[in-house]
Amino acid sequence: MKNYYKDGSDVTVNSNMSLLDRGVDPKPTVLEFCKPLCTYWKEKLDRCEHKLAVIVKINPTKTCMYPMRDYVTCVEACAQPKIHNNLIGTERKYKDLL
Fold first, then answer.
1. Paired residues of 2 in beta bridges
2. How many degrees, rounded to 5, is the angle at CA 27 between CA 22 and CA 33?
3. Is the Cβ–Cβ distance between 66 and 49 less than 8 Å?
4. In this structure, are residues 78 and 52 in contact, taking their beta carbons and an 8 Å threshold?
5. Distance CA 98, CA 94 (A)
6. 8 Å CB contact between 30 and 83
7. pLDDT at residue 66 above 80?
8. Whole-number pLDDT of residue 74
9. 16-25: long-range pairs with CB below 8 Å, 24+
């Protein structure tokens, strides 16, 4: 077994084990991988938040809910198939069901 932690640590990790086998939720890792793919929506959200800082003083009911929704939807749309398609039991294809 390889030890990926600093010397003297008694924690070892088997490099052949998946994140799920190690008991680690893979979603945060996949989300971090997908975030750079949604730069358009992130930039749109950042612009909205910058404008909102001024507008909220005049009208406190304004939000950036829709740009945030678009950004989150983009990240989730990237991450969801990567996670779902690697679950046990999803390897069956549609043609096998017919």
1. 13
2. 110
3. no
4. no
5. 7
6. yes
7. yes
8. 95
9. none
Domain spans in the chain, listed from the N-terminal domain onward: 27-97
**CB atoms closer than 10 angstroms to residue 31:** 16
Where do runs of H (alpha helix) occur along the chain?
Answer: 27-34, 39-58, 65-84, 94-97
Single-letter code of the amino acid located at 79: A
- In tens, the pLDDT along 6-53 reads 555 444 444 556 676 777 788 888 899 999 999 999 999 999 999 999
The residue count for the chain: 98
* SS3 of residue 82 by DSSP: helix
66-69: list long-range contacts, CB under 8 Å, 24+ apart.
67/41
Answer yes or no: are the C-beta atoms of 16 and 5 closer than 8 Å: no
CA distance 13 to 20: 13
User: Running DSSP on this structure, what letter comes out for residue 6?
Assistant: P
